[in-house]
Amino acid sequence: MSKVENTEDKKAVREFKPTTLALKNKNTVYLAVFILLTFGIISYFTMPKELFPEINFPTVFVQSIYPGNSPEDIENLITRPLENELQSVQGINELRSSSMQDFSMIFVEFQTNVDIKEALVDVKDAIDRSKSELPDDMLADPQAVDLDFSSFPILNVNLSGDYSLIQLKEYAEFLQDAMERVYEISQVNISGVDERAIRIEIDLPRMEMLGLSFQAIENTLRMENITMAGGELSIGGTRRSVRTVGEFKTIDDIRNIIIKQDPTHIVYLRDVAEVIDGFEDKKSYARLDGKPVVTLQVIKKDGENLITASESVMQIIVDAYADGYVPSDLDVNYTFDQSKDTKEQLSNLENSIIIGVILVITVLFFFLGLRNAVIVGLAIPMSIFITFVILNIQDAQVNMIVLFSLILALGMLVDNGIVVVENITRYRERGYPKFEAARLAVGEIAMPVISSTLTTLAAFFPLMFWEGMMGEFMKYMPITLIVVLTSSLLVALVFIPVFINTFDREGKKAKGAPRKKLLIVASSMAVVAILFYFMKIIWVANILALIAIIISTHQLFMNRIAIWFQKHFLSTLERWYQRLMTFSLRGKNPIWFLLGMFILFFLSMAFYGYRSGNI
Question: Consecutive 10-residue runs of the chain (615 residues): their mean pLDDT?
């Protein structure tokens, strides 16, 4: 080293204490990396997955029905008294009402930080306080309901086949009990078939001829269909309870009830009425392809994994077929399956992240070489998995907003790592030992790197306080970006120096492994990857296949392309850039360039305004 370099080094020797500590404890750092990656992978697979964030829709609807009154009367008699009481409820953002013929609707919109369940209770209390001012002859009290998106079904399971509705309902009830035992499932509703009802259709002329009445028949049915205690018996020193069981068990028990008896004649219920085993009046219809079906509407718990819930429900159907609890010719179809769209959209975003990582590493390869590109590229998956650990601790979900934020941050995750690797390489080229090179290089650029990252994070902090429904929807974008960029700073200043220090060799540049040997290793990994594909362990197969492709392409042609890019293309680009700068700084050219920029700016704005048109 020259005297100038030695003098400069002695003037200011700076170090970043966390980096120095990490370099002295490499085994601990690798253990921390392993723990973070392991928990990151576990967090990703266990976190709830939704297509969109679950947002709180803080609105309560107050409905009132008062038949026979005009909109003006509804306004004066119902809407205004209710509004006067509702205005006293805390946390209201906006109160709107609509008075129509026979009907009043009040929309109570709360602030987004209000618990909607507590708000619903407060609204009901306000309705109770207003009852003294409402008309006494209302058919029903005003009803308050909230709009809960988590109560919407995530999946409909439709049962059909050559079976009666009673049989289909029995199968549906069995599946309903099994599905509701799944942890992620809140409830399962059955539609398309109503509750069973025993209908007694009385022959009115015959009943009158026999001197009976509706009241007499009703009282007889009520008294016969009863189970009552019969006291206690003491047997052998033990007290035993006795009860009389009189409830109906079959339809014939009802038909054979004696409703009138005299010395000459006994009248049974079947003599004056037809007893039918049927259903209540139709309240819901379910049809698929024009055929009646019995539908199970599956509703998951708030905050649980939608995909896991749907897969558990489908597995219950498979197990029911296998165990013979439902017949093999029973047709089961799935409709309104939200998990299908969710899996497709999340899969597309995951693939975009993987492709982005590959493209980023490819670009780094041309500028930094294979080893440094791989080391810098490790910042991307490590930062992402650390982010999943932190989001999982916050009980967050994996959704479109989170994954889109990660895609947005892909290019920024390697910025700090590039600066660290290049500065360490510069110190190594000046002859420093690898430990000193890493310590001094990171110490030199740590504060600028931290400052640069903080200025980037500062742009996202205001978005965390975004109010309203849109703020609730988008809040995890700034949170994810802040967490992942902070994680990339940790990786660049602590982990990457350790990786460089580990894979850098002291002394002369060691020769790489023979080309033939590396190609054999790549071929072996490709064969193992194919075996994992057959075993359907896709993620392991993808990793092995990617490593095999990187090794083989690097040995066959990518290394020569990288050398040509660095030694020829970049050199030519630098010469062009030098000529352009020389020309732009000559004479009055800077003034003309600056003036041209302003003209281009205003022309662009004018063109944009012309293209946008009037709104």
Answer: 47 77 92 93 87 80 89 90 89 88 90 83 90 85 81 87 82 91 89 77 83 83 78 76 77 83 81 79 68 86 85 92 87 87 81 81 83 85 92 88 87 88 88 89 91 91 82 86 93 92 64 69 86 80 80 81 85 90 88 91 84 56
Helix (H) or strand (E) holding 561: helix 559-564
pLDDT value for 88: 87
What's the angle, vertex CA 183, arms to CA 180 and CA 187, rounded to 5? 35
Sign of the Cα pseudo-torsion (343, 344, 346, 348, in order): positive
Residue 89 near residue 123 (C-beta atoms within 8 A)? yes
What is the C-alpha separation between 64 and 160, in angstroms, rounded? 39
DSSP class per residue in 288-345 = ETTEE-EEEEEEEPTTS-HHHHHHHHHHHHHHHHHHTSS-TT-EEEEES-HHHHHHHH
Question: Long-range contacts made by residues 466-469, C-beta under 8 angstroms, separation at least 24?
Answer: 467/112, 468/112, 469/55, 469/57, 469/112
Q: What is the 3-state secondary structure (H, E, C) of 8-53?
A: HHHHCCCCCHHHHHHHHCHHHHHHHHHHHHHHHHHHHHHCCECCCC
Note the maximum CA span of the chain: 135
Closest among 494, 505, 550, 543 to 379, alpha carbons compared: 494
Pair 114, 91: CB distance under 8 Å: yes
Are 145 and 121 a contacting pair, CB within 8 Å? no
Amino acid letter, 114: V
Contact (CB, 8 A) for 78 and 66:
yes
